Amino acid sequence: MDTLFVTKLSMNSVLRIRKLAMLLIVVLGITAFGAVSAVSAQETGTVKDTVSKEYKETKDICPAVKQVLKNGLDTKETVKSSIELGHDACLVVRCAIEGGGNIEQVIVGALAAGATSDVCSRCAIQAGASPAEVAKALETGLGYSPPLAAGLPSIEIGLPGDARGGGVISPATF
Q1: Which of 21-35, 108-122, 130-144, 159-173 has the highest mean pLDDT?
Q2: What are the contacts of 135-143 at 24+ separation with CB within 8 A?
């Protein structure tokens, strides 16, 4: 009987250990997921903090944006954060392009921060970007699809009165 009792006791212990192990795995998984989420949420805050810090040092947003981009931070997030901090969208777009930022990322970041497409295009062209590159970036940023290929057959519509015996009836003849 003692052996049977010890076997049942050890079986219960094994089941408890398995339950505790599963609980530990679930807790660690949730903790890891929370840490990854916090890191990605802080990434935007880090860019904002970096832009703010550079702005406080230079007292001008243009050199601050150029320096942040030179340090290798994400162009889209830098532009978005700078505009969200209250700086002029046109100035930020121009400085980001002059600072070597990718035109597409600059425009996507500005649009994400609430800048309008006309401001983005005008300021990007003022910074020296080619209009074709700006148009392509705007298509990408706004989700436009390219126009249909040329050469599609046109639809011909005849005007009333082309055939004999028909035509427009004038109210003057009544």
Answers
A1: 108-122
A2: 136/104, 137/103, 137/104, 137/106, 137/107, 137/108, 138/107, 140/104, 140/108, 141/104, 141/107, 141/108, 141/111, 141/117, 142/111, 142/117
- Closest by CA position to 84, among listed 39, 133, 45: 45
| Predicted confidence (pLDDT) per residue in 54-86, tens digit | 888 888 888 999 988 888 888 999 999 999 989
- Average pLDDT score over residue span 84-102: 91
Going by the DSSP 8-state scheme, the letter that residue 167 receives in this structure is: -
Q: Quick check: helix, strand or coil at residue 41?
A: helix
- Kindly list the distances between the CA atom of residue 33 and the CA atoms of 28, 41, 42, 43, in Å, as whole numbers in the listed order: 9, 12, 14, 16
Task: Judge residue 99's burial from the number of C-beta atoms within 10 Å of its C-beta, 0-12 exposed, 13-18 middle, 19 or more buried.
Answer: buried
pTM for the structure as a whole: 0.58
Tell me the two tokens of residue 125.
Answer: 């062209």
How far from the centroid of its chain's Cα atoms is residue 2's Cα? 68
Domain residue ranges of the chain, discontinuous segments joined by +: 43-142
Structure-model confidence comparison of residues 157 and 83, the more confident one: 83
CB count in 10 Å sphere of residue 118? 9
